[in-house]
Design goal:
Layout lengths: L3 E5 L7 H17 L2 E5 L13 H20 L4 E6 L3 H17 L4 E6 L4 H6 L3 H13 L2 E4 L18 E3 L23 E6 L8 H13 L5 E6 L14 H12 L8 E3 L5 H10 L2 E4 L10 H8 L3 E4 L15 E3 L5 H12 L2 H19 L1 H13 L4
Parallel strand pairs: 1-2, 1-3, 3-4, 4-5, 5-6, 7-8, 7-10, 8-9, 10-11, 11-12
């Protein structure tokens, strides 16, 4: 009987990372049964990578749970969704140390759900860089989200044979598209920003782009924002998340924007699926420092959305440029407004993008495709 210990974040908070981790746990539990997880998600509002006392205690609790688990029984596989901050790395390094001490025969699999491990490595001192290389070399398998992200590990050439690419997937119940394509007769185009509202994911640029469209008397759209406001270390210096939130809410309630913008907060389950079905263009003009391969883009593709995003990290691995995906520049609302206007004025292009998105999803990003790859890595056999 295979036994797996999983270490990673489960909701809340609701992120692509935490939702997919929980989905994988549930699928493995139903499939092979001997599966347990240790939750690394912060219990309180937390800025990623910030070494607060409450976060240190949470990480110590993770390590204590792992120690207790491995003292009782030895799993075949220990699966870790690793961090790319100093605080996260220290926890991961100690996780490896405990695993090798108490269960050296266990396969140690690490999975980075972001795309910044090279920049994280370069920002560390020589001693920590030595520990990072040791950690990676002692791991048995390294999972990357896309082909574009394999080069993150070029600083350690010996790792190439350990790296396996497994792209993200849709985690909801939909298996194949159920006829959700763009309707050419639609008068008002539905735009969607579905992600946590982190400043560097570009939601304020999108607000400015909408203002530009309205100033040009372009009115054939409605924009929905969905997600929670979350602070990040790459927020503009000296800024507070409450400042961004207050500014955002004030703007969307203004006479100029209130008719064109709705903020829905966190959406999950049927509410989220309904929102995706209604949407035509998904927009994520991101430069978020730990961005990897946004699950939200895959979700939008499954429901037939055209995608406007940035040529960043693993995003080019999952869309087809100028067919279903259209690039804008981060921090350039004028560029973003221009790209939105182009699609608003060309319904045939929107229809084609919708068809390509669905085709890509059906061929590459269904959950069963993702799960077969992950199961082979973690269990050692296909379904």
């Amino acid at each position: 009987m295979n036994k797996i210990v999983m270490i990673g974040a489960v909701p809340p908070p609701y992120t692509g990372h935490s939702i997919s981790f929980l989905k994988l746990y549930e699928a493995l539990l139903e499939d092979i049964q001997e599966v347990s997880y240790i939750n690394t998600a912060p219990k309180n509002k937390h800025i990623t990578g910030k070494a607060t006392w409450s976060r240190i205690k949470e990480n110590l609790s993770v390590l204590k749970q792992l120690w207790t688990s491995l003292r009782k029984s030895k799993p075949n596989t220990i699966y870790v969704t690793k961090g790319s901050t100093t605080v996260g790395f220290i926890r991961d390094f100690l996780t490896l140390s405990i695993s090798k001490l108490l269960s050296p025969q266990s396969k140690f699999v690490i999975h980075l759900k972001g795309g910044n491990y090279d920049t994280f490595y370069e920002s560390q001192n020589s001693f920590l860089q030595l520990l990072i290389r040791f950690f990676l070399n002692k791991s048995d398998t390294i999972i990357a989200l896309g082909d574009s992200l394999v080069k993150m590990y070029d600083f350690c050439p010996k790792l190439k044979n350990k790296i396996i690419v497994v792209e993200n997937a849709l985690t909801s119940s939909i298996e194949k598209n159920q006829g959700v394509y763009f309707d050419l007769s639609k008068k008002k185009i539905e735009l969607l920003f579905l992600s946590n509202l982190i400043y560097t994911k570009g939601y304020m640029d999108l607000l400015k782009a909408v203002e530009i469209l309205i100033d040009k008397e372009i009115f054939n759209f409605h924009l929905t924002f969905a997600g929670s406001f979350i602070a990040s270390p790459d927020d503009p210096l000296g800024s507070d998340i409450t400042v961004f939130e207050e500014e955002f809410l004030k703007k969307i309630k203004s006479d100029k924007l209130k008719e064109y913008i709705t903020y829905r907060g966190v959406v999950i389950g049927e509410e989220k699926e309904s929102l995706l079905k209604e949407s035509d263009i998904f927009i994520l003009p991101t430069s978020y420092h730990v961005e990897g391969q946004p699950v939200s883009i895959i979700e939008a593709m499954a429901y037939g959305c055209a995608i406007i995003s940035t040529k960043y990290r693993s995003i080019p691995d999952i869309i087809v440029e100028n067919e279903n995906g259209f690039y804008t520049e981060y921090g350039n609302p004028l560029s973003l407004a221009s790209k939105i206007e182009e699609l608003l004025n060309d319904k045939e292009k929107l229809k084609k993008a919708s068809l390509v998105s669905v085709d890509l999803y059906n061929k590459r990003f269904q959950w069963k495709i993702h799960y077969e790859k992950m199961r082979k890595i973690l269990v050692g056999s296909e379904i």
